[in-house]
Amino acid sequence: MIYTVTFNPALDYVIHLDKLELGETNRCHDEELYFGGKGVNVSLVLRELGKENTALGFVAGFTGAALEENLRAQGIRAEFIHLKDGLTRINVKMKADQETEINAQGPAIDEEALNALFAKLDTLTEGDTLVLAGSIPSTLPADIYEKILARLQDKGIRFVVDATGKLLMNVLKYRPFLIKPNHRELEELVGRPLNGSAEIAAGAEELQKMGAKNVLISRGKDGALLLDETGKVSEMPAIGGKPVNTVGAGDSMVAGFIAGCEQGYEYALKLGSAAGGATACQAGLAKAKDIEDLLGQI
Questions:
Q1: Could you give the CA distance from residue 80 to residue 106 in angstroms, rounded to a whole number?
Q2: Largest Cα–Cα distance in the chain?
Q3: What is the number of helices (H) and of strands (E) in the chain?
């Protein structure tokens, strides 16, 4: 079974305006509502690719109930911890002559709720995959990813970590199966600019030497680069049309790689690239047909 963890999921309310005027009443001409968070995005795309999975994390209030109901309606096992107070956050994204985002803080997560999540994670067994993705709410310990991997490290679980900075660096010693920084994040991790495929591959190798088995680098318009656990470097150009939405594209790439890795790392890179490209070319997350169409173009 594949499990995803989203500590601070959200409802993304996207509104479209011709122009945003501060201090005035603004009326939108179009609107959309998406249920998200990096782990949630991975779960949704995995389900589109036919992979059963369980979404874990924390929700609160009527917004949290709506998110959980939506995931279950799409065939995902939603087993979130329900917090006593607060609301699962609503992020407002305004698209006008300029784009403006207002991201809410989200509910506080207490020790009792965190222990309830640990209890769920303790049920994972050998062969399961655990995806940890995204930032950490301020009410949780900054080393929460490290605590989780340390707790589960001897159970034969495949760890997938999509995070940045120290959050990622501190878990490499637990030999995660996959990490997916983007080009800029990789530069920050190794502390220098990386120009061209050879330098990016060298940067990925540094992280691999620190413990990561497979290092997948998303490169935006330049595609993706994979350094797999055999030491092979593979590249994939960007596919799809003109990007209209980068939110969730990296999460889709992670989901595609996980779904495809049983057929080899070369296919996993192709499927991940197709999933990421398909999401980037539309307003929401890619559907199965979108991914299948792009995969056929590779």
A1: 15
A2: 59
A3: 10, 14
Question: Taking the model in full, what pTM does it have?
Answer: 0.94
The answer to whether 52 and 70 have CB atoms below 8 angstroms apart is no
Measured at the CA of 253, the angle between CA 251 and CA 256, to 5 degrees, comes to 110
Which has the closest alpha carbon to 253: 242, 264, 241, 239? 239
Q: Is 251 a catalytic residue?
A: yes
Catalytic annotation, pick one of 12, 162, 228, 251: 251
Q: Which domains does the chain have, with CATH numbers?
A: 2-7+37-85+108-295 (3.40.1190.20)
Distance CA 182, CA 230 (A): 21
C-alpha closest to that of 166 among 183, 154, 181, 152: 181
Q: Please report the beta strands in the chain, taking only residues with DSSP state E, as ranges in sequence order.
A: 2-6, 10-16, 30-36, 53-59, 77-78, 81-82, 89-95, 99-102, 129-133, 158-162, 178-179, 214-218, 224-227, 233-236
Residue 54 bridge partners (DSSP): 3, 77
| Bridge partner list, 5 | 56, 132
- Give per-residue burial for 43-60: e unless 16+ CB within 10 Å, then b: bbbbbbbebebbbbbbbb
Task: Give bridge partners of residue 94 from the DSSP assignment.
Answer: 15, 100
* pLDDT tens by residue, 131-152: 999 888 888 988 999 999 999 9
**Spatial distance between the Cα atoms of 272 and 255, rounded to a whole number of angstroms:** 7
Question: Residue 107, Cα to own-chain centre: how many angstroms?
Answer: 20
> pLDDT for 24-49, tens place per residue?
999 999 999 999 899 999 999 999 99
User: CA distances (Å), 133 to each of 55, 136, 180, in order?
Assistant: 12, 9, 10
Structure tokens at 151: 């707790």
CB 268 within 8 A of CB 240: no
